[in-house]
Write a structure and sequence with these properties.
The chain is an alpha/beta fold. It contains 19 helices and 10 strands. The protein has a 10-stranded mixed beta sheet with strand order 1-2-3-5-4-6-7-8-9-10, with helices on both faces. Helix 9 links the parallel strand 6 and strand 7. Helix 1 packs across helix 4 and helix 13 crosses helix 14. The protein is globular and about 60 Å long.
């Protein structure tokens, strides 16, 4: 789930100033030194206390003027430690960073609601700031809202191994590689990423995986003083949440999994579903634009408009009117901006206006949309969202589910015919984990037998994690209940009264809606 651009950029700087972050290199060296002392039957790790500090004044200043900032909220920043290797309870640890938001006047407090925004690679601490301003107050009156940066993300020992200039080149690269030369250039960048991260971290790269993060979550639950976990996860957060439920079913109190990643799809199936979903999302955007009474800024055929713009940009990349901006919009930038805007219908007007401006020679809007998606900051640096996304995704992916250059090129050529905007790019992404040199910790099958009811929310027009993924996850979970929103965009809660009422009742009173309940758009 993509956060508001200004809040993300500003809060990253603030949180870095509020708290220190230890070096993973130091921690992993300690882990190597301690590994020889591990016993054959390791003890279960104990939850470390969370050290909370008052960062209310700094965060209140940060969010001033943002919708929802008038709420009477108090913020704390927290640090705790978790084992690098959960099988070595007495081994080295790494720090995790948290944000806790509390609404004044809480009554009948239930406990903490732990939230995850997805990615993998998105900051849960940043997300807690954003969600505290928009979460229904009925929920905030009963829960402390807690967001944490998972291992390898944000301020929790971040994976940082992809240089900013390489990220710029990745975004600018050909987004629809279908010739051998195009594919060689795109996959060459992927090789550069893998080599840079292997050189920086070596064997430690495998540490950043979802299974160990789920184990971290259980220690956080205990450190927060909750007998059972209440959890709200979006997109990849549904993978983290369902993995937790599989490992610790008895510890689930309530779990909302919104915009579910399909647990049954292999990488190829997942990539194709994403390409198809984005194509459908673009069609929904186009239909909305052409239905406007005021007229669509990009004409009666938005798909042709975008394709023509990309063709023109391939020959002559489009400059920006932003002072000091030296980058230009290539087809890669254009398609990154389009994909980013499809996540949320509120971005559709900005997308159409930015595309129209680019056609007259100003790509500032498209660069801004692309930057918000990739985590590029105003000074040209990046958050570590991309680094963490690749590291965690590949650590979760079994080695026998990787794809060769030849397989990827064939799929790209095939999918480019069926999904002309997003198919070839989705296929090229299948190469990434094949050259990733790190230990793998594959995700478990997830039925979470013995868990309390788990609420899975899907959106009919989700362009990123299409509805069949939510249907599959709800069906796989022994206690899964499916809630469907007949809307557009990535994620559903809390966007409509029907969805909000159902989720609130479940989180607060543990009253799950009827399985298969459908909410209107």
């Amino acid at each position: 789930m993509r956060l508001r651009r200004g809040l993300l950029a500003a809060s990253t700087g603030l949180l870095l100033a509020v708290t220190g972050c230890s070096s993973f290199t130091d921690a992993s060296s300690s882990a190597d030194a301690s590994s020889s002392a591990a016993t054959t039957t390791p003890a279960e790790p104990e939850a470390a206390p969370i050290t909370w500090t008052d960062c209310d004044a700094e965060i209140t200043e940060l969010i001033a003027g943002t919708p929802g900032s008038e709420r009477d909220l108090a913020f704390e920043c927290g640090r705790t430690e978790v084992p690098i290797d959960h099988d070595e309870a007495d081994g080295a640890t790494l720090p995790l960073f948290l944000i806790r938001a509390q609404l004044a006047g809480q009554t009948d407090r239930i406990g903490s609601l732990l939230v995850n925004p997805g990615g993998p690679g998105a900051s849960g601490a940043d997300f807690a700031l954003s969600l505290a301003l928009s979460m229904p107050e009925d929920v905030l009156r009963r829960f402390d809202l807690v967001g944490f940066d998972p291992r390898g993300v944000g301020l929790s020992t971040p994976v940082e191994c992809v240089p900013a200039d390489l990220k710029d080149r990745l975004v600018a690269a050909e987004p629809r590689p279908t010739t051998q030369q195009q594919m060689d250039e795109v996959l060459g960048l992927t090789d550069e990423v893998a080599e840079a991260c292997t050189e920086e971290y070596g064997d430690a790269l495998g540490t950043f995986n979802t299974v160990d993060t789920a184990r971290d979550v259980d220690l956080l639950r205990e450190s927060l003083g909750d007998e059972q976990l209440s959890f709200l996860g979006y997109s990849y957060g549904t993978t983290l949440g369902s993995t937790y439920a599989e490992l610790f079913p008895q510890n689930v109190r309530a779990m909302v999994l919104d915009a579910a990643v399909d647990p049954d799809a292999d990488p190829q199936g997942d990539a194709e579903a994403r390409a198809a979903g984005l194509e459908a999302g673009f069609d929904a955007f186009a239909a909305n634009c052409t239905s406007l009474v005021s007229g669509c800024p990009i004409g009666a055929d938005p798909r042709t408009f975008v394709q023509d713009l990309m063709t023109a940009a391939s020959a002559a990349p489009i400059a920006s009117s932003t002072p000091g901006e030296t980058r230009t919009a290539t087809p890669g930038v254009i398609l990154t901006a389009v994909g980013a805007a499809l996540y949320d219908t509120s971005s559709w007007p900005r997308l159409s206006q930015s595309l129209a401006a680019a056609s007259t020679g100003d790509a500032a809007g498209l660069l801004s949309l692309a930057d918000a998606y990739t985590g590029r900051l105003d000074d040209g640096t990046y958050t570590n969202r991309l680094d963490a996304n690749i590291a965690i995704t590949c650590a979760d992916t079994p080695e026998d589910r990787t794809y060769s250059e030849e397989q990827v090129l064939q799929l790209a050529q095939d999918w480019n015919q069926r999904y002309p905007l997003f198919g070839a790019g989705a296929a090229s992404g299948l190469y990434t984990c094949g050259v990733w040199d790190a230990a793998r910790t594959p995700l478990p099958e997830r039925d979470a037998e013995g868990s309390a009811p788990i609420l899975v929310v899907g959106t009919a027009g989700d362009p990123v994690t299409p509805l069949p993924g939510a249907e599959d996850l709800a069906g796989d979970l022994t206690a899964g209940t499916l809630l469907v929103w007949q809307g557009q965009g990535h994620t559903a809660y809390p966007k409509t009264d029907c969805v909000t009422a159902a989720v609130n009742a479940y989180l607060i009173d543990l009253t799950a809606p009827q399985d298969g309940l459908t909410c209107p758009a």
